[in-house]
Amino acid sequence: MDASWYVLLALLLGFAIGAVSVHLLGVAAQRGRQVMAISSEPVPDGIAAMVHVLESAGIVLDGSNQVILSSPGAVALDLVDGRALRSPEILDAVRRVWRSGEQEVLELVYRRGRIGVGTEIHLRVRVAPLGNRFMLVLAADRTEEMRLDGVRRDFVANVSHELKTPIGAISVLSEAIEAAAADPERVRSFAQRMQLEADRLARMTKALIDLSRIQSDDPLDHAERVPIARVVEVAVDRNRVLAESKRMRVLPRVLDEVDVLGSEELITMAVQNLVANAVQYSPEATHVGIGVRAADGIVEIAVTDNGVGIAPEDLERVFERFYRVDPARSRVTGGTGIGLSIVKHVAASHGGEITLWSRPDQGSTFTLRLPIAGTTAPKEKA
Ligand code: ADP
């Protein structure tokens, strides 16, 4: 073969290789375009905007269950990891909905966070097809709602238990009176006990009404200037009979005369409860002190007694509704177990707090701390 043939052959071979390469590159590019089209298929108009304004978490998935849109809420709840859903339960639901075409609602406990055990949150998740190419996942955080439900359930259970006791006692005593009709002495004794239980029931109902009123009302909505010196005076006065019955003296010492903003009735009720407890839980013929002093924009009303005191393990719990360190003793004194939860609520709703120092057999100091009402700047002399 002469040289010109070799050249022609080489040219043909080169051309063939080039053509095959160009074809292969074309095929690869087309495949690539298809993949792009699947994963970034345009989401119908309006859906992206809708997902971004959703209050609950919203996620849109494509046909291969890849996340193509997620709302800020979904990110905050940590539901997506790149383009994947983090929760296997939600992914399973998505697969079921693809098969059935019917939307699904599921309740699940989800662990947010990737380090350690994470925070447990309760989610209500709705999975629904969005046309036939996308899937919408909506998730609402129900953790707080569930917690409040629990608090409400406990409260109702506690109230019914607390009310049942005196009601049951009244019923038993009335039967006893009937049976002892011929014996005036016993009738009198049963009737007296019945009166005690009825009083207890009345106090409990009043305390519950007070508590629910405080919880539903914001005292700062219709706040007035409340002089603390007057609050202390009235609180002491309302406990005078109780203190005298135990030969006790309540000694107020108001070092600073200041006002706070809020409800005079509620603040007085709080201080009155603290003084009543100080008297109730102290031996006869002891003293109760009330000190008022102001510093750094805060007024402290400290009620101190030399009574039975509270053990360290009960210090936090005494502010819970219906919690009593010694239920039997509290029954004798006519306690409702609600007084301190009222104090705690009044403190919190006035932007303050209640603190407690106590030692068993030594006594207790409850300190109500409230922000002082701002004083108007003194007028400049002309
Ligand atoms: P109660 O009506 O039973 O007094 P409170 O909510 O006012 O209910 O108080 C809850 C519990 O805290 C009381 O039952 C008592 O055990 C304890 N407690 C409150 N104040 C004092 C105090 N000054 N000294 C000792 N224990 C107290």
From TrEMBL:
<keyword id="KW-0902">Two-component regulatory system</keyword>
<feature type="domain" description="Histidine kinase">
    <location>
        <begin position="158"/>
        <end position="374"/>
    </location>
</feature>
<dbReference type="InterPro" id="IPR036097">
    <property type="entry name" value="HisK_dim/P_sf"/>
</dbReference>
<keyword id="KW-0808">Transferase</keyword>
<dbReference type="InterPro" id="IPR005467">
    <property type="entry name" value="His_kinase_dom"/>
</dbReference>
<keyword id="KW-0418">Kinase</keyword>
<dbReference type="InterPro" id="IPR004358">
    <property type="entry name" value="Sig_transdc_His_kin-like_C"/>
</dbReference>
<dbReference type="InterPro" id="IPR050351">
    <property type="entry name" value="BphY/WalK/GraS-like"/>
</dbReference>
<keyword id="KW-0597">Phosphoprotein</keyword>
<dbReference type="Pfam" id="PF00512">
    <property type="entry name" value="HisKA"/>
</dbReference>
<keyword id="KW-0547">Nucleotide-binding</keyword>
<dbReference type="Pfam" id="PF02518">
    <property type="entry name" value="HATPase_c"/>
</dbReference>
<dbReference type="InterPro" id="IPR003661">
    <property type="entry name" value="HisK_dim/P_dom"/>
</dbReference>
<dbReference type="GO" id="GO:0005524">
    <property type="term" value="F:ATP binding"/>
</dbReference>
<keyword id="KW-0812">Transmembrane</keyword>
<keyword id="KW-0067">ATP-binding</keyword>
<feature type="transmembrane region" description="Helical">
    <location>
        <begin position="6"/>
        <end position="29"/>
    </location>
</feature>
<protein>
    <recommendedName>
        <fullName>Sensor-like histidine kinase SenX3</fullName>
        <ecNumber>2.7.13.3</ecNumber>
    </recommendedName>
</protein>
<dbReference type="InterPro" id="IPR003594">
    <property type="entry name" value="HATPase_dom"/>
</dbReference>
<keyword id="KW-0472">Membrane</keyword>
<keyword id="KW-1133">Transmembrane helix</keyword>
<dbReference type="InterPro" id="IPR036890">
    <property type="entry name" value="HATPase_C_sf"/>
</dbReference>
